[in-house]
Design brief:
Blueprint: E1 2-7, H1 10-20, E2 27-32, E3 42-43, H2 51-60, E4 65-68, H3 71-75, H4 78-84, E5 88-90, H5 98-101, H6 103-113, E6 120-123, H7 129-134, E7 145-149, E8 159-161, H8 164-176, E9 181-184, E10 191-199, E11 202-205, E12 210-211, E13 214-216, E14 220-223, E15 228-231, H9 238-258, E16 264-274, E17 277-284, H10 291-297, H11 303-311, E18 327-334, E19 356-358, E20 361-363, E21 369-371, E22 375-383, H12 386-397, H13 413-416
Parallel strand pairs: 1-2, 1-4, 2-3, 4-5
Antiparallel strand pairs: 6-9, 7-8, 7-9, 10-11, 10-16, 12-15, 13-14, 15-18, 16-17, 18-22, 19-22, 20-21
Helix pairs in contact: 1-10, 2-4, 6-9
The structure holds glycine.
C-alpha cells in the first residue's frame, strides 16, 4: 500500500513512524512535512488546503490511501476531492467535519443524540454580550467562564477564567474580529481525550489519553494547542471508556449517519469526567496533537491497514486492536513566547534522536535544523509504567538545545502521584 500523509506537525511525524511499522506499507509520502519527516517519507511542498493540489499529488505518488492530519483541509472539503478522484481517504467529508468546524453544529448533533455536554449559547451581537455573560460564570454557579471562538482556532481561541473582565475582553475581541462567540458552562472533573476510528456507525476506540492545554506547570497561563500528553490513563476505569463509546461516540456517529453526514475518519471526543459522568467538552474531526504521539507509540496493530479499513468501509471486520504494555508520555518543546508570536529561525541541536518528533522545524540550506513555529518538537518517552515513561521523556528533553524554548515539567505527574480522583 502506498500512502500519502497530509500535514506538517508532530502528529504527522507520529503517523509516519507508526505507518512504517506496518508490513503492508510499500511507500510513504508527506505534504508538506517538516525537517523530521523528511527521512521517513518523500516530501512535497503543496498547498494542502487545495483539493485539486492534493489530488494531483496523490496521483503523482500513486497513493492507494491519503490520510489527512489537520482540521483545516478537512473542513475545506479536501477529503471529498480525494474520494471523488477515486482514491481512498482517511478523513471525514466537509459535511461531517462540521463536528469540529462549527461548534453550533456539534451542539445540535449532541442534543439530538442525547449526549451530555456543557450548556452553551452563541453570541454574535456585541450588544447582547453582557446579558449573556451574566447567564454563565460564577454568578450562575459555575467555577469560571468558558469563552470560545465558534470556529477553528487551534485550541488558542478558548479562554477559561473566573475573571469577568478577562472573559468579556476575549469575547469582545472575537466579536470585533467578526467571529461569533460561544459561551459555555464550565465542566469540572479530569479531562480525557478518546480517539475513535469511525466509519458510519462502526466505532473503534484507541487508548484514552490526557492532554495539557495550558502553557505552564500546574495548569497556569494561557491555552495552547497542547503542551504534552500521556496514555493510557491509570485512573480511568475501563468501564468509563466503554461508557464513553456506547453513550457518547456511538450515538453521535449514528446521528451523523441519520443526517446524511456520515463520518469516516478519526472522531476525537474531548471530555470531562464530571460527578454526573462523562460530558463532552468538544469533538474534533481528526487525530489530536500531542495525544496522538503518545497513543500511537503504544499501538501494536498495523496502522495503515486500520486506517485503510475505515477508508474503504471494512472497519467492522478489522481485528481487535493490540497494544504494547506500558505507558507513553509526550512533552512539547515550544519556542520562546509561544502561544504568542513565537521566536523562529533558531538552530536546534539534539533533535535527531529516537522519540523526538518534529513539528515547527525546517532544514536550512547549510543543513542546520531551525525552529519554524510555536510548538517545535514533541518528545515521546515510554516505559513500563507512567513514572518510567516520564523519566524517559524528560531525559530526552534534557538533551535538546533550543534558545529561549520552554516546556512543562509536570506532564503526567498528578497521575503518578495519585492526585486525580473521579
Ligand atoms: N490536543 C488538542 C487538539 O488536538 O486539539
Amino acid at each position: 500500500m502506498r500512502v500519502l500523509v497530509i500535514g506538517s506537525g508532530a502528529r504527522e511525524h507520529a503517523l509516519l513512524l507508526a505507518l512504517r511499522r506496518d508490513p503492508q506499507i510499500e511507500a510513504l509520502a508527506v505534504a508538506p512535512g517538516n525537517a523530521g519527516t523528511a527521512s521517513l517519507a518523500e516530501q512535497y511542498d503543496v498547498d494542502v488546503s487545495s483539493g485539486d493540489a492534493v489530488v494531483a499529488l496523490a496521483r503523482k505518488v500513486a497513493a492507494d490511501l491519503v490520510i489527512i492530519g489537520p482540521e483545516v483541509p478537512l473542513v475545506l472539503g479536501v477529503a471529498d476531492a480525494v474520494r471523488a478522484a477515486g482514491i481512498a481517504c482517511f478523513g471525514p467529508s466537509k459535511d461531517a467535519a462540521r463536528i469540529e468546524g462549527s461548534k453550533a453544529f456539534a451542539k445540535d448533533v449532541m442534543t439530538a443524540a442525547g449526549v451530555r455536554t456543557a450548556t452553551s449559547e452563541i453570541v454574535d451581537n456585541p450588544a447582547h454580550l453582557d446579558a449573556a455573560l451574566d447567564r454563565f460564570g460564577p454568578a450562575a454557579g459555575d467555577q469560571a467562564w468558558v469563552v470560545k471562538d465558534d470556529g477553528l482556532a487551534a485550541g488558542k481561541g478558548v479562554v477559561v477564567t473566573p475573571d469577568r473582565d478577562a472573559a468579556r475582553a476575549h469575547a469582545a475581541a472575537l466579536l470585533d474580529g467578526g467571529h461569533p462567540v460561544l459561551l459555555e458552562s464550565f465542566l469540572d472533573g479530569p479531562e480525557v481525550s478518546l480517539f475513535c476510528v469511525v466509519d458510519g456507525e462502526t466505532v473503534v476506540p484507541l487508548l484514552p489519553a490526557q492532554d495539557f492545554k495550558r502553557v505552564g506547570d500546574g495548569d497556569t497561563g494561557p491555552n495552547t494547542g497542547g503542551m504534552g500528553a500521556y496514555a493510557p490513563l491509570p485512573w480511568l476505569p475501563d468501564e468509563i471508556t466503554a461508557q464513553i463509546v456506547s453513550e457518547i461516540v456511538e450515538p453521535v456517529a449514528a446521528e451523523l449517519v441519520r443526517r446524511g453526514s456520515s463520518f469516516s475518519g478519526l472522531l476525537y471526543a474531548g471530555l470531562a469526567i464530571t460527578s454526573k459522568g462523562p460530558s463532552v467538552v468538544e469533538f474534533n474531526c481528526r487525530f489530536g496533537d500531542p495525544e496522538t504521539q503518545s497513543v500511537l507509540a503504544l499501538l501494536d496493530s498495523p496502522l495503515g491497514q486500520l486506517l485503510n479499513a475505515a477508508a474503504t468501509g471494512e472497519l467492522a471486520a478489522f481485528e481487535e486492536l493490540r497494544w504494547r504494555n506500558g505507558s507513553a508520555v509526550t512533552v512539547v518543546v515550544a519556542a520562546e513566547n509561544y502561544p504568542g508570536r513565537p521566536r523562529v529561525d533558531d538552530v536546534i541541536t539534539g533533535s535527531e534522536a529516537d522519540g523526538i518528533l518534529h513539528a515547527g522545524t525546517t532544514r536550512r540550506e547549510d543543513g542546520a535544523i531551525v525552529s519554524a513555529g510555536g510548538r517545535v518538537l514533541a518528545v515521546v518517552g515510554t516505559g513500563a509504567d507512567l513514572a518510567a515513561a516520564r523519566a524517559d521523556v524528560y531525559s530526552k528533553v534534557a538533551s535538546i538545545r533550543l534558545p529561549g524554548s520552554h516546556f512543562r515539567t509536570d506532564i503526567g505527574l498528578a497521575a503518578v502521584e495519585g492526585r486525580i480522583h473521579l
